[in-house]
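ok here's Transporter, NhaC family (TC 2.A.35), seq below lol
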Amino acid sequence: MKTNAEKLPSPWVSAIPLAVLTGLLYVVIRAFGGEAINGGSQIALLSATSVCVMLSIGIYRCRWAVLEEAIIDNIRASASAIVILLLIGAIAGTWMISGVVPTMIYYGLQILHPSFFLVASCAICAVVSLMTGSSWTTIATIGVALMGIGQAMGFSEGWVAGAIISGAYFGDKLSLLSDTTVLASSTAGVEVFTHIRYMLYTTVPSMLIALGVFTVAGLALDHGVSTHAEMYAATLAATFRITPWLLAVPLATGMLIARKLPAIVTLFSSVVFACAAMLLAQPELVARVAGVGELDFMSGFKGVLMTCFGPTAIPTGAPQLDELVATRGMAGMLNTVWLIICAMCFGGVMTGSGMLRSLTSIFLRWVRRAFSAVASTVGAGIFFNLCTADQYISIILSGRLFRDLYADRGLEPRLLSRSVEDSATVCSVLIPWNSCGMTQATVLGVSTFVYAPYCIFNIVSPLMSLLVAAVGWNIKRKK
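and the structure came out like this:
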């Protein structure tokens, strides 16, 4: 990517747009709360972008064409993520109205014991994400169902979302099918199997700590299951046609994932499967969504499309359950898409102007030994997530920035790829304006500020990376 000039902007000047963004987001969130994503955060990002543009052009004579090219490159890189996000919105609607999610919630209420629900949710999401290679898909499907079960059992939404996200990101991080795993290893120049094996030294201990915390929390928290679970199960059975045959939809989706089809193809196919199940198992609900009394071809076609792209509300007689089964479809993702595009504009001008590179040069001054190299990499990964608002850009920038430096210090590239994963990958979901944080907050219906303190695995992972580096466990230098 082209940048402004060979001479980088001053780090103090480069920090101004980031400071403006942080200040504006603080005010916006204080003013709008959970509604900040509906426009306030987007304006904050564009305002910080304009500040960066004015500084770049006014002080460093950067050409607008360079900045524009950087913005376009950033948005182009996020295009597939935006399509996936829209398909996830369609999945949320079709899996709910077809009865797939209500069926999983119903049987989950019968099987999962409340005392061990949190640790079981974390483990289930870890296994599913490990097999699928996608934390986003896991959270949007199994995670949504577990969120409903947890709310029915009376658990705090922060604890449930934290358990789901912790498990999903553990599996994503170690999966051979994960795009972030492949990206981190390839950016650092490490063979993917070597990368995965080396991550076990930090990832497994972090997950064990998370499972321990969720086990203790499940036993200690007052979840009030006796007053919610049975009522919710009966209400779901009265509203939806509950049958094990509906579980064929997630099973077929899993089979497509096992065949390593592209994520967009798999998610679109899953929507088609759910639409077919919706017409077969819940024709009355499809007619209700279409606004007619009796289902025919046109009303069925209308009801299916409305479920995919628009909001749906199925009255169940229980206010809390009404909120759970309500969906927003693709339209519900548009604010998130808008926010991602604005975030990509900010990350683009910061990169194209050279300001981002100027700020990251600060990290390089502290790299002397293995621990300082890992600490700088972890800090850079979190920093990139904050200022570029994108997980993939953070992985690429962290890997490229430190690759030559690790080689100069005689440190193995697998240490770099692991440090990038322990920070840029897992911490992205903890940042409200990051694409991962925005997406999971939208999908689960829980604010990032609410679930972040309970994402135990995501919090512990960068700390574990620092601890292992400080101890020097299996860290070798090349001659």
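fwiw The chain has two domains: 11-77+333-471, 80-328. kinda neat tbh
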